[in-house]
Specification:
The complex is a heterodimer of chains A (about 110) and B (about 900). Chain A is α+β, with helices and mostly antiparallel strands. Chain A has four helices and three strands, in the order H-E-H-H-E-E-H. Chain A has helices at about 10-20, 25-35, 45-60, 80-110, and strands at about 25, 60-70, 75-80. Chain A has a three-stranded antiparallel sheet. Chain B is elongated. The longest helix of chain B has about 45 residues, at about 755-800. Chain B has four domains: about 1-75, no CATH class; about 150-265 and about 275-290 and about 300-335, no CATH class; about 350-530 and about 755-885, no CATH class; about 550-735, no CATH class. With about 900 residues, chain B is of the alpha+beta class. Chain B starts with a helix and ends with a helix. In chain B, the strands form three sheets. In chain B, strands 1, 2, 3, 4, 5, 6, 7, 8, 9, 10, 11 and 12 form a twelve-stranded mixed sheet that branches. The chains are: A alpha+beta (about 110), B alpha+beta (about 900).
């Protein structure tokens, strides 16, 4: 059983961590936010989102609690933990390195 | 750190708050669906459409739930519980299979635990002394003598001058007779020890005081320390015993202490007493009783190294002292030989134990292969079950885990049963151990053994479960589901695997069989080998005349002459004789540097022989034949001329090509005419030990001229010699009612005890080999029977096409034979490399003895062929109509 995701392995974690780095969010909002910010390019499949959230929680990067939404509904909010914040920094740095490296290779390849 | 704690609580919550976690997951997901629905409604969808679309966007709800559950790792634990229940149910459904596999494992795991508990007790448990790794045995060594005891005066110098030992002490055996108190006199195993002996070992008296250096003075020496068992057994644990007197060897001794119950003897080499709770009593050694003697060696020496000192440093320190001593006195070619006490005690049993461990390990391996084979056979019957499970969404890893759980359950059941077997097995093992086996009292099933058993069980379960589990989980789904229970193509690779396992199993069993065969062969050699004397129909005992009452040598001669005359007059008695020792009783009185008439001093410095004392009929009583000259005739005079009898080895060694008769030797460096001892007889060689071919030079002096007090008596009887025992006691009591009769036993028992190590190892390895052969036969039967079942249809066709039963029979037998030939070949190759490890356990057989190898190969072939016969006959009886119709 493969977990279908168009995203590069591990990128989903980065996106999730990043989108809750400012304030706690529930799953729906996280998915929506990634979708909107990426101008609808990144569509987070729900089938991938929730297992990922649970995995991150089990790893201790994020923490969950039940809060009321603006609409007054009960929802499970995810908060970045201190360890999660460090992890996010690490993954961001790694992503920067990777993407700039890939970009470099592609540009050089095209111009050469 | 906080993160780890969080994780821990989360896991706990998802494990125990399982329903709550499930509920929360439901709420979370339904919130999501709800939001999606709101959005859809906002876009203007109808309510029904909005709901369906929202559900669809979430994908398979159940799948997400399952994945989320997977993310909460504790699933594993829940799964394990489910797997366990499932495994128990499946196994209970196939009781025959389960029982066979559990029993074979129980046998081999139990055997492993039992052998391991022996190894744990003997090799792994620390010696029962304080910081035992710092204890060292100290010996002299020369070209002729590998381990020689120390001289007391030399010992004193070593004690004073060494710089590497915290303390150093010596002991020498001095068995004494305890009499008085209204009971029969008894012989006690006793040692004279130097001051500080107990402290050096870390032993303390339970009551009373230890010996001091003052006690080493000759006039202070009449005190004794009792062992705990003597105190309880003979003195009813009398708490007022300290200060009381007892009669030892007709002298009065004062008891100054009782040792603690755990005070063990560390074992000694000269006139050896095995280690353990084997000593009854200790006396102080009077170090100053023979101030000028540097020639007598009888002190067994042990030292405790100072912290941080290595064995090599200790050795060179003592060697430096020895060099000084050589300058101060006339030292001969001695060197210092040190060996850690641990090595000294367990060294000789190490090899045997490791061989046993290897054998029992092989047995376990065979049981594993056997179990794997059985599981494989069964997994083919479960192909559909597994296919259905994976069709229902079970991942491969999940199925592997399920199957592994089953094999672990089997292995653990085997371990529990095996432990029960081991509890009984260890008791039997210990009771069968050779009499002088080191540290037998330390052998028991303890916590370490249980941990070992558990580890072995888990390893075993993984080992035999992994291959079948991986194979089974790799099943082709479609094929298996489509097929209606019949196996065809998918099973060829499986059959190949099973063939491979059977070849391995047969090979391993052959290795064990060869080891057992070699040991049996060498045991037969030992039994057949001519020991040089006849042990049947001989009763033996040891007597010790107390010095106090037998100061006069002529009284000793008189006593033994009278006793022997009385014994020989008993009905049925043919000969009675006495000597300083009997063959194979561990005697080691050595004479070095005696003078041979007419040889140079340089030559004479290197002479060496074991010296013995014998009465007239000693050789007759043991049936040691005369080769030349005459026996002692009873007319030897205490004042000479002195005569001796030598063995063939000595005669040939010193007088090659000429007759030794009439030649003379002397202990004196400047012998006068009367000091010479003339050779009057030559007797046949007696092997030093039954398990080696070495024969030392030896000579015997007549008791009349060398009136020793302690002799062993041998009585040869035409009737059953055991019946003589009471008459023997009576004969001794008539002459001296104060005298104890010790070690009353048959010469047969002595010779058998001398072979006990070999017998013990042979018995166990033979037992393991037999079990291995049975397992391998089972394995072969299983594989052939399985393949016959698979091919019944084909056989029916063949029969229909004109094949005769014999064709099918030989086809199947051929298949089995091919497997067992391959197995035996593998086994022989492995054995050729491995049997060298048997080394000293073999006697008169090379580790690659072709006869044994051939015999074992034949045996393996014969049994496995037999195992093929039943299935082969079934194939031959195939009814073509039946097979074809069943299609």
């Amino acid at each position: 059983m493969s977990k279908s995701s168009d995203l590069i392995q591990g990128t989903l974690d980065l996106l999730i961590l990043n989108s809750i780095s400012l304030e706690p969010q529930h799953g729906w909002a996280i998915a929506k936010r990634i979708q909107q910010v990426s101008k609808e390019v990144l569509q987070i499949s729900q089938g991938a989102l929730y297992p990922a959230l649970h995995r991150l929680e089990q790893q201790g990067w994020i923490r969950s609690d039940w809060r009321l939404t603006d609409g007054g509904r009960d929802a499970k909010f995810y908060t970045l933990t201190r360890a999660g914040r460090t992890q996010l920094q690490k993954e961001l740095a790694q992503w920067e390195r990777l993407s700039s490296a890939v970009g470099l290779v592609l540009r050089l390849g095209a111009s050469g | 750190m906080k993160r780890l704690l969080d994780i821990f609580f989360l896991r706990l919550r998802s494990l125990f708050g399982r329903s709550r976690a499930e509920h929360e997951l439901d709420r979370e997901l339904s919130f999501h669906v709800n939001q999606q629905m709101q959005e859809n409604l906002a876009r203007g969808m109808s309510f029904a459409d909005a709901y369906t679309a929202a559900k669809r966007s979430l994908g398979g709800l159940a799948q997400i739930q399952e994945e989320c559950r997977d993310m909460r790792r504790t699933n594993h634990i829940e799964n394990i519980w489910n797997d366990l229940r499932y495994a128990a149910r499946t196994l209970a459904r196939a009781p025959g299979f389960t029982i066979i596999i559990v029993l074979t494992l129980a046998l081999s795991i139990g055997a492993n635990s039992a052998i391991f508990s022996v190894i744990q007790g003997v090799l792994l448990r620390p010696l029962p002394f304080r910081q035992p790794e710092r204890l060292v045995r100290v010996y002299f060594q020369s070209d002729a003598q590998p381990k020689f005891p120390l001289n007391p005066n030399d010992f004193r110098d070593f004690r004073e001058r060494n710089r590497t030992f915290e303390s150093i002490a010596a002991m020498t055996r001095r068995d004494v007779q305890l009499s008085g108190g209204g009971t029969d006199p008894v012989m006690l195993r006793a040692f004279s020890v130097t001051a500080g002996y107990f402290g050096m070992l870390g032993l303390k008296p339970a009551r009373g005081r230890d010996f001091t250096t003052d006690d080493e003075l000759a006039e202070r020496g009449r005190i004794a320390i009792l062992s705990d068992h003597l105190w309880r057994g003979r003195f009813a644990a009398d708490p007022t015993i300290i200060g009381r007197t007892i009669t030892l060897n007709a002298e009065t001794f004062t008891i100054v202490a009782v040792m603690a119950p755990d005070a063990q003897h560390p074992g000694n080499n000269f006139q050896a007493v095995a280690d353990g709770d084997t000593v009854d009593l200790w006396m102080p050694y009077s170090l100053y009783q023979m101030p000028n003697d540097r020639g007598s060696h009888f002190m067994d020496t042990i030292g405790r190294l100072k912290p941080g000192i290595t064995y090599a440093q200790a050795n060179s320190d003592l060697s430096a002292v020895l060099e000084q001593l050589k300058k101060e006195h006339t030292g001969r070619g001695w060197r210092i030989y040190t060996i850690p006490l641990y090595q000294e005690i367990v060294g000789r049993s190490q090899r045997m134990l490791l061989v046993l461990l290897a054998a029992v390990g092989l047995l376990l391996l065979i049981a594993c292969v056997n179990a794997a084979n059985l599981l494989l056979a069964r997994s083919s019957a479960r192909v559909r079950e597994i296919a259905v499970r994976s069709a229902l969404g079970a991942a491969r890893g999940r199925i592997v885990r399920q199957l592994l759980t089953e094999s672990l359950v089997i292995a653990l059941a085997g371990a529990i049963l095996g432990t029960l077997l081991a509890v009984g097995g260890v008791r039997v093992l210990v009771s069968f151990l050779p009499a002088d086996f080191p540290r037998a009292s330390a052998i028991r099933l303890d916590f370490t053994v249980f941990v070992f058993t558990l580890a072995v069980a888990i390893l075993t379960g993984l080992l035999f479960g992994l291959v079948p589990a991986l194979t089974a989980s790799r099943t082709d789904l479609q094929n298996s589901l489509r097929e209606s229970g019949r196996n065809t193509s998918g099973s060829t690779s499986q059959l190949r695997l099973r063939n491979f396992l059977v070849v391995g199993e047969t090979g391993l069993a052959s290795v064990l069989l060869i080891a057992a065969g070699l040991m049996l062969h060498s045991f037969v050699n030992l039994l057949r080998a001519d020991p040089g004397f006849q042990s049947q129909q001989v009763l033996t005992a040891s007597l010790s005349l107390p010095y106090q009452r037998y100061r006069d040598p002529s009284k000793r001669v008189q006593f033994y002459q009278q006793l022997i005359a009385n014994l020989e007059s008993l009905p049925g008695v043919q000969y009675a004789g006495a000597g300083s020792d009997l063959p194979w009783t561990g005697y080691d009185g050595n004479a070095d540097g005696y003078k041979i008439e007419g040889r140079s001093d340089e030559y004479n410095q290197k002479t060496t022989a074991r010296y013995h004392v014998a009465t007239t009929d000693y050789f007759h009583a043991l049936s040691i034949p005369l080769v030349g000259g005459r026996f002692f005739d009873g007319r030897e005079d205490a004042n000479g001329p002195f005569v001796i009898i030598v063995n063939e080895s000595m005669a040939k060694h010193y007088w090659p090509g000429e007759s030794a008769l009439g030649k003379r030797i002397s202990f004196r460096s400047r012998p006068e005419e009367k000091d010479w001892m003339q050779i009057v007889g030559i007797v046949r060689d007696v092997k030093d030990e039954p398990t080696s071919t070495s024969i030392h030079n030896a000579f015997w002096m007549p008791h009349a001229q060398q009136p020793a007090r302690d002799l062993l008596v041998a009585v040869r009887s035409a009737a059953d010699p055991t019946l003589l025992a009471s008459q023997f006691r009576l004969a001794v009591r008539q002459l001296d009612p104060e005298l104890a009769v010790a070690d009353l036993r048959l010469m047969n028992q002595i010779t058998q005890a001398a072979l006990s190590t070999q017998r013990f190892a042979l018995f166990l390895v033979g037992l393991f080999a037999l079990l291995a052969l049975i397992l391998a036969t089972f394995g072969m039967y299983g594989v052939i029977s399985y393949s016959v079942n698979q091919r019944m249809h084909e056989f029916g066709l063949r029969m229909a096409l004109g094949a005769r039963p014999w064709d099918l029979l030989s086809l199947i037998l051929g298949q089995g034979l091919a497997l067992s030939v391959a197995g035996a070949a593998v086994g022989l190759l492995c054995a050729a490399g491995l049997t060298r490890l048997l080394g000293s356990l073999l006697f008169g057989v090379k580790a690659t003895d072709p006869l044994t190898f051939a015999a074992v190969a034949l045996l393996a072939l014969a049994t496995t062929t037999l195992a093929c016969y039943l299935p082969a006959r079934r194939a031959a009886a195939a009814d073509p109509m039946h097979s074809l119709r069943s299609e």
